[in-house]
Structures
1.
Amino acid sequence: MLVFTDVVSDLKKGLLPKDLSAFKKRFEIAMIKKMGVLRLPYHFWSNDPKINPSSEQLVWATLILEDPGFFVQVEEVVALEVSEQLQGKSTANELLSAIRERLNEHMDTFVGFAPNESFRHLLAGKISRSPWSRKTGS
């Protein structure tokens, strides 16, 4: 189950969350859970999304909220996950490239939710205003 299932459903209908304050609180709770999981050794990370929210969903939520501090936090989450998954078997440049690629994949999925061109443009605008808009391949 996705932490933000209702939000994903709304995005597919061309809707953004109505109450951004409540959405922000949900995001903050998800981040607290995520940070708790990331403190554990990698092999103990839960696959249960209620315990370990998906970084993909955190990326989407950050794009919706457009909070500068959240961009930094979520990018760190993605970086840590990618680093752990590569298990130190990559150079610094390969790691940075993998992080950029993961963020780009999540952003492509985010824009892909749009049911029409006008909503796609709105979501793409959120990406272009984000610090991640410059995160293209090496």
2.
Amino acid sequence: MNSIQFFNSTSSGSDKKASKPVVIQESLTIANGTGGVLQPLVDVPAGDCAGYGGQIVNKGCYDLQVTAKYLDGGDCDSCTVDTLTTTCVTFYVPANSVFPVPDGFFVKLLVGTVDSNKALVNNTTAVDVSIYSAHAPSCNGCVAAPASTPAFDGGRVTVQGGAGWSTEINGFPTGGVNVWLWNVDNNFNLSLNGQSIASVQEINMEEGKLQTYLDGGLTADDLIFTSDNAYIFGGFPYDYPSDAVDPLVKVNISAAGAVTVTAWRDDAYEPVKFKNGATFRTLAPVTDECGTNAINFGQSDLESPTNAQVRVFSA
């Protein structure tokens, strides 16, 4: 006698959403003498899916420093707008080993060779490095890499009494960094990662006050208009309205380190220069997102009082 058998209609895994895995598989050879500078093993373009977990294979005689850029702030709720922030995490991979990548969504992995003290050092033999990472997104789409360096704006800050002001930013915007100045009384200095934008220590803007800084042991020069050698705002920069929307002086530091300075006159911004031969330097921004850049604004108080308003923001 024939029988009919009915099977349970709910099979294991039938309630899972079909989802294409996100796979990241990259390799890199760190050539002799180059491992002292971090190099990209993974760099996910903006809009592409971030990696998650995985393992790094180090086929070399050197331990590796891995600096990873992780994302935070995403969820699977379609009714919310994700605001992703980035965090850089550093870990170390022993020589000739397979090492797990810490769990989390990453968009960049930088690698370099280190010595026994975990300090970056140039390698004397080549090192082959590879990564394999795969995960299935748990919600629609995937966690996508954001734009390389998010915009920032430090707002308008009042500096006075010879006090300095500084800020740090992660990475460096493609369009550079703007530093805007209002009602400067009457001098300033500005540096990126400890290097002054000028070949002198102090930039003077008030006519007749340069000797004060020179007598005080500083190198200094006067900032004037390029076209006619006139002083900015008639040589009295502190009279510029502190509540003006537009600044008196604009400084831009490009991603290549070029410094461009202009000043307001007759409803327009004109190039400026130094009166006595000082020059603007080419600086060295740290352009990788996992690096930091320190911007410092200061004023010598040899000629008191000192005041200024400063705004630092991405161009």
3.
Amino acid sequence: MNVDTDSPALVFIDYSSTRPLRKGKLNGIYKQDETVLAYYAGKFAGCPPDALYKHPRDYNQQQHDSQKLKLLNCLESTWKTDKEFLEAFDSVMDEAFQGKVPTAVPVLYSTKWVQGHQGSLDSLFRTPKGWCDEKITQEEQECQAQEESQKGNEFLRLSNLKWRWAENQLPLVGMVSKTWFEDSWNKPADRDALVNELKQKLSHHKADAKQYETRAVEFADADYPERRKTFANYKEALEWLKLASNI
């Protein structure tokens, strides 16, 4: 905990959870910092409720694309944003939804629209000399070396996956995305067992009533459950499994 005694304001800064971006939370909830841009932009712009974007964790691919378009249209209308801004914001939202290490935010910040609306900045918390140098830290070098080693290993171990339907079926309402606090999963022994479980669900006598064929499917890494991937339906999920990739 750091206390700034030179400022007229008393400010507490918590460094207890500081970590490199590549090790940050990328599971589509509020702790993934990149998600707050879309979440609050709609609120600040006064967009109608149906144009607000929640968190990526709440959407499958189709819902994300639809809600993203509504939000961008609202920002263009209310804030009079230009094409450069909208394209950059689009990239930020896609990057957050895909759970990638964030790189698109600086591009958004550098757009003419943002720079033209930003007031003068007062540096209250000056970063110590050397902290923002472009040289890569030893920890990051080790991470990069490990990633390169994994990319070159054609026998890379495939992680076990757990799965669930990404939506709940509610009476008189239909399909509704699961909320961030729901954490029930099917945990097959391996990927072959996962495929069998999916196929068994599709042959279930209530498969049509439960809309299993068109229902969104979500996978999560069994060891690192914050790594997740959502598919529009079981066919997309099975096609991805054929790629023999990790999330």
4.
Amino acid sequence: MQLTMRSSQCLAAVLLLIGTAAASPALAEPLTSDSAYSLVGAWSCRDPDTNGNGLATFTRAPDGSINEVELHRPARVIGLPQWGEFKNTYAFDASRGLWTWTSTIPGVHRFRETGTAEPWTSDVWTFEGTLQMLGRLPAYQPSRMQLVRVDDASFAREWEVSSGGGQWVGISRQICARSNSPRLP
């Protein structure tokens, strides 16, 4: 009888776990008021500080994540070729209710930036996380990226690193406008 009782407890635990896993997928749709998918499309961007320019193309993947390819001239990371290419992924985790952003540079393993953010439900969408640039001190630094909706056809974006004590220092920024036919300058 004790074996039967233990077996039924195990079965109940397994069924509970299966039901929980089915009810909360790792990647699902964010809130309907989330503006993240408004980024899908092509954008022409410029850096007002360096007079650099580039393109940002956002696509929605079948799993619901958003993939972005950024091309910039000059590259916003010192030591890269004249053109900088960044691959960004934005993935929504329904179980945590957060977006995760990851930025990499193809072929440059010393650069990686990651952060998390609540759904984009106001004019500002802020990702906070870590900038990894191996070969520089410090190699790992608290960082954040903010997207600011200017209007339906434009947004501003700024990358910052922490200088300690709650202070943030801008390292790069862009102003992007939706474009039907973006071209590399």
